[in-house]
Amino acid sequence: MLREIITRYGRRGLGFFWLIGEPLLFTFGVMLIWSTIKAPYQHGLGVAPFVMTGYMSLIMFRHLVSYSMGAVSANVGVLYHQKVKILHLYIARYVLEFAGATLALAVAYTVLYLSGLVDLPHDLGLIYWGWFSLFLFGCGVAMVLSAMAMEFDVIERLVPVMMYGMLPFSGVFIMAAWVPEKYRDVYMAFPMPHTIEMVRAGVFGEFIETHYDPFYPLFWGGVLIAFGLLLIARAKEHIDAE
User: Fold this and answer.
1) Three-class SS of residue 117?
2) Is the distance from CB of 100 to CB of 158 less than 8 angstroms?
3) How far apart are CA 94 and CA 61, in angstroms?
4) What contacts 104, CB < 8 A, 6 or more positions away?
5) Could you tell me if 217 and 129 are in contact, meaning their C-beta atoms sit under 8 angstroms apart?
6) Cβ neighbours, 10 Å, residue 180
7) Would you tell me how many other CB atoms lie within 10 Å of the CB of residue 164?
8) Number of C-alpha atoms within 13 angstroms, CB side, residue 239?
9) CA dist 49 to 15, 182, 228, Å?
10) H or E element: which one contains 45?
């Protein structure tokens, strides 16, 4: 992990700060834009805490997938050492992204709380469950796509398009309750909205209507991680560590 931090952020300038600073800059930037162009409340929810819960989740998911793409190619020399396995490279990046996004969320929440824009969490355990479910699901998606990218170069080029394509189905910018009832079951077939609904239910409590299955994203996260491990094991043949 220390090597990964130095490789990505270097030893000069703000360095490790960017692991937390980058999500904060993006999130507060979007908060500023939304607060300028939209009413202070949307469907009874404050714009700032709504953006915080959605955009922080999106950044963690996006970083897990994006930084997973170059995990092996950027550290292939390390694989020369027999004790270092491909899985170690992925775990280092996933833990780093989880730690950075979690710290950034805590800082953003504290700033909004001190500004009077959000109350203390109504259910901290539900926030943890939703956040960790999102992490597992993100790791699963990242592992599958990065393993496929080791065999097919076109996957790496398609990932940014996929990230934009999944936005309407992510739950980042809408609540499940805002989706017309006849389409809601189809919308909730995607695992990611369940995770963000749990985070928002933990933050806002009974003041908002939420829809989620706490085990659905965990199930898909487990399935994707298992599938990703199989793909990585097969993709080892395409890696030259010499």
Assistant:
1) coil
2) no
3) 10
4) 20, 21, 23, 24, 27, 56, 59
5) no
6) 7
7) 9
8) 24
9) 28, 28, 34
10) strand 45-46
Q: What tokens appear for 40 in the block?
A: 């202070």
* Separation between Cα atoms, residue 135 and residue 148, nearest integer Å: 20
As to burial, measured by CB atoms within 10 angstroms (0-12 exposed, 13-18 middle, 19+ buried), residue 90 is buried
Residue type at 106?
A
The sign of the dihedral angle between the CA atoms of 227, 88, 127, 18 is negative
The pLDDT tens digits of the residues spanning 159-176 come to 889 988 888 888 898 899
pLDDT for the residue 176: 93
The pTM of this model reads 0.88
Among 50-54, 85-89, 136-140, which is the least confidently predicted range?
A: 85-89
Name the residue among 223, 168, 176, 179 with its Cα closest to residue 195.
176
Write the pLDDT tens digit of every residue in 210-231: 999 999 999 999 999 999 999 9
